[in-house]
Design brief:
alpha/beta, globular, eight-stranded parallel sheet
């Protein structure tokens, strides 16, 4: 593996979510390889730049699964997507070293971890030359300092440890963890200061798609939050976030094209005055 090669700052990239789980909060999970493959290929047709494949729900109150179960869920999907779309950039969403190794061997180039940056996973990413996403997370929603300051402190520590492990700076991607260890108000505070996350000097990722905070604001169910997700993604692009992780690729991409045209001076190849 050689990690991922994206031109950070040129535009905002879209990561399409593929949940190979029966209990995803967003209602889009599937236990069938064929269905997961179809979703991944549809994401790519709609313009996704990366595909993130996960085999264990992280919703509140989820039932953990063991290594063997998670590998059995995700490995056939990674292999199938790699076979059908050999040039696609693939990410494995896991906290388990065994799952990360199996996915890397099957062709995953990125390791996306919701539990900050465990040393075992950093070691795997460094050895396999995978990009690494470190996400802020904690037990409970109590903070001894401003929530944004706390998020920045943790993410900076994750990034520095990743670099010391031998992962290139451009392959260390920081995610503020919307919905993880934060109340709705705390999520909004973090979203308001995404520029400070960008200011840490590493590539960044935002995963706010269909989250409960958007539901609280709109009154809509998870599958009805595509517009709210697109709006949040456009605001993230304006703040300089590099990747947005979403369920609804087409709607998000439309919003990003407008935001990137305004804030990053991006233009489509067909653009003429």
């Amino acid at each position: 593996m050689t990690g991922i090669r994206l031109a950070w700052g040129a535009r905002t990239y879209v990561m399409g979510i593929v949940n190979v789980t029966p209990d995803s909060f967003s209602g889009d999970g599937t236990a069938q390889t064929a269905d997961a493959l179809e979703r991944a290929l549809q994401h790519l047709v709609e313009g996704a730049d990366l595909i993130d494949i996960g085999g264990e729900s992280t919703r509140p109150g989820h039932v953990p699964v063991d290594d063997a179960t998670e590998i059995a869920r995700v490995l056939p999907v990674v292999r199938a997507v790699r076979e059908r779309a050999p040039r696609a950039l693939l990410s494995i969403d896991t906290t388990k070293p065994a799952v990360a190794l199996a996915a890397a061997e099957a062709g995953a180039e990125m390791l996306n971890c919701v539990q900050r940056a465990p040393e075992e996973l950093l070691e795997i990413a460094a050895e396999r030359k995978m990009a690494f996403v470190a996400m802020h997370n904690q037990e409970g929603t109590e903070y001894d300092e401003d929530v944004v300051d706390a998020v920045l402190r943790v993410l900076d520590d994750c990034a520095q440890r990743a670099v010391r492990r031998g992962i290139a700076r451009e392959q260390v991607i920081l995610d503020p963890g919307i919905g993880f260890g934060k109340t709705a108000e705390q999520n909004l505070r973090v979203l308001r200061r995404l520029d400070r996350v960008v200011g840490l000097g590493f590539p960044t990722l935002l995963g706010a798609s269909r989250k409960s905070t958007l539901g609280k604001l709109t009154g809509r169910e998870p599958h009805e939050r595509a517009i709210a997700t697109a709006a949040t993604s456009a605001l993230a692009a304006a703040a300089g976030i590099d990747i947005v992780r979403v369920h609804d690729v087409a709607a998000t991409l439309d919003a990003l094209r407008i935001a990137d045209a305004i804030f990053r001076e991006w233009r489509p190849t067909s653009w003429t005055e």
